[in-house]
Amino acid sequence: MSRQHIHFVTGRLAERAVRACVAQAAEALKFDYTIDVLGISVAALMTPTWIAARIAPAGGATRVMIPGYCRGELDAIAEAAGIPVERGPKDIRELADFLGRSGPGVVALDAYSIEIIAEINHASGLSTRQLLAAADRLRREGADVIDVGCAPDEAWSGVGDAVRALRGDGHRVSIDSMDPRLIVPAAAAGAELVLSVNAENREAAPDWGCEVVAIPDSPEDVDSLAETVAFLDDRDVPYRVDPILNPIGFGFAASLTRYWEARMRWPAARMMMGIGNLTELTDVDSAGVNVLLLAFCEEIGIRSVLTTEVINWARTSVEECDVARRLVHHAISSGTLPKHLDPRLVMLRDTRLVRPSADEIAELAAEIKDRNYRIIVGGDEAERDAEIHVVNREGHQRGSDPFAIFAAVEAAAARPLTASHAFYLGFELAKAATALTLGKTYRQDEALDWGMLTRDAGEGSHDWRAHHDETNPSDEPERDEC
Questions:
Q1: 280 and 398 together in one domain
Q2: Are residues 136 and 96 in the same domain?
Q3: What pLDDT tens digit does each residue of the chain (482 aa) get?
Q4: Can you give the C-alpha Rg of the chain in angstroms?
Q5: Does 155 lie in the same domain as 85?
Q6: Whole-angstrom Cα distance, residue 173 to residue 196?
Q7: How far is residue 253's CA from residue 464's CA, in Å, rounded to a whole number?
Q8: 273 occurs within a structural domain
C-alpha cells in the first residue's frame, strides 16, 4: 500500500507550531507531508474560495488538510487541488490524535441491555402539565419507564388520573408505593410495574394484573425475600428481584453481596437495583457512581435500575445512566476497557489536557505585530507552573489571577478598552481561570469541554471572525491553530 502524502495549509503565525506538530505526527504515523504557508497571518480567517485561488499542492500529495476553523464547503478547494480535502483539528497540537485515533467517535454505542426507570418524586404535588413536562424531559434523557413516586401513608385520590395522563402521552409507567389503595387505581390506569412488594402487601399482588418488584422485609433479611419470591411464583405473578442497595456506612458492601447471591439463587429471575441510595446519599458527583453501579448490573445480569434526580449533584443521573449503560454494555460484550470510547461522562476534567509550553507561548508573543489579544492557558508541564497568558503587540501579561491580569492589560493598552471589549476579556479570563483551576484545556472563544454538559451556546457562541480585518486589525483575537 502506497504511503499517504498530506498537504497542510496554514497561515504565517501558526507556521512554527504546524511544522513542529506535523513533523511529530508524521514520524509517529508514517506519512509524507508538505506545508503550504499562505499569505495571511490568521489561518482561521481563510475561506475555501480564498484557499482555492492560492493552493498549490505538491506533486504526489494524496489529500489536503486545511485549518479546522475554516468554514464553508470544500468543493472549490478539491476542484483546484485535484485531490480530497478535509478539515484538520481545531488545535494543531491534537493532530496526531486526529489522524491516528480509533476511539472517540468511531465505536457506535447504540446497544444496551439495562432499562432505566426514572422516578418523579412527590408526583402528587405536581399539576398534570408539570407531571407530563417532567416525564417528557426524562424520556428525552433516556428513561424507559416513568416511575410515579408516592410518599408513605399518602392519600392521593388523583393517582389514577396521573398514570392515565402519562400513558396517554405514550409513557410506560410504574408506581412507587406499597399501599394497595394507591396501587390498585394506578394499575387499573395502566401502570405496568409496582415498586414494591414484600410480606406487607404481597397478598394483594395477584389482583393487580401487573409485574411487581420483590424486596426483603428488611434489607438484611434475605429469607423474607425468598418467601416473597416463592409466594409470587406460586401465583404466577411476574416479578423482578431487588435485594436493596444500602448506602455507604450502612452495609453497602454487604448489599452488593446480596445482589450477587440473589443472582446465584435465582439465575433466571429478572432483577432491579435502586441506585439512588448511593447517588443521592453520597457527597460526590453522580456520574462515576452511576458508571460503576451499572457496570456491576451489566456483569451479573441486573437489567433494570431505578434512579432519581432530587439532590443537585445527581440532577443529570438519567442522562448519565443512559450513557453509562451503553458504555458498560460495549465494554463487557466486547471484552474491552471502557476507555477512549465515549467522553460524555468526563465532565470535571478533560479526556486529554492540551496546553502549549512556555517556550511556544514566548515564540508566539515575539511574532505578534497587531493589537489582537490572544488568551492562552499554558506553561511548563508541571501543573503548578501553568498560567494564564494574554498576549498582543502591547505586551505579554501572565499569572493566575484574572483580575490582576486584566489590570495589567488595561494599563498596557495604547487606548482605553471599550465596554464590550472589557466584557469580552473578562468573560474569557473567567473561562481561562476555570480551566486553570480544574486542569482543563482552554481554547479562546470555545466552550470548555464539560462532556455531556457542554454548552456551546453561551460559553462559546460569539464569533470574532466577523469583526477581524486582516489589513486593519481590530481588537479581536486570533489563534494558533492548524
A1: no
A2: no
A3: 578 999 999 988 888 889 988 998 898 888 999 999 998 887 777 889 999 999 988 888 999 999 988 888 999 999 999 999 999 988 888 888 888 754 344 578 999 999 999 999 999 999 999 999 999 999 999 999 999 999 888 889 999 999 999 999 999 999 999 999 999 999 999 999 999 999 999 999 999 999 999 999 999 999 999 999 999 999 999 999 999 999 999 999 999 999 999 999 999 999 999 999 999 999 999 999 999 999 999 999 999 999 999 999 999 999 999 999 999 999 999 999 998 888 999 999 998 888 888 888 888 888 888 888 999 999 876 556 799 999 999 999 999 999 999 999 999 999 999 999 899 999 999 999 999 999 999 989 889 999 999 887 667 655 554 444 443 333 334 443 33
A4: 29
A5: no
A6: 14
A7: 54
A8: yes
pTM: 0.81
Residue 460: which of 444, 438, 437 has the closest Cα? Answer: 444
- Asked whether residue 290 falls in the same domain as residue 376, the answer is no
73 and 201 fall within a common domain:
no
Containing domain of residue 11, as a range? 5-100
Geometric angle at alpha carbon 156, from 138 and 270, rounded to 5°: 50
DSSP letter at 4 equals P
The DSSP call for residue 417 is P
Q: Are residues 183 and 290 in the same domain?
A: yes
Q: Is residue 350 part of a domain?
A: no
Give the residue among 354, 437, 349, 347 at the shortest CA–CA distance from 388: 437
64 and 87 Cβ atoms separated by less than 8 Å: no
Residues 314 and 403 in one domain: no
Do residues 310 and 179 both lie within one domain?
yes
Which conformational region is residue 40 in: left (phi greater than 0), alpha (psi within -120 to 50 degrees), or beta? beta
Query: Is residue 185 a part of any domain in this protein?
Result: yes
> Could you tell me the CATH number of the domain that includes residue 21?
3.40.50.11600
Domain total in the chain: 3
Dihedral angle, C-alpha 171, 176, 182, 184, nearest 10 °: 60
Q: Of 48, 77, 100, which residue is a domain's last? A: 100
Phi/psi at 171 (nearest 5 deg)?
-90, 145
Residue 22 lies in a domain: yes
CA distance 379 to 304: 47
SS (H, E, C) 128-160: HHHHHHHHHHHHHHCCCEEEEECCCCCCCCCHH
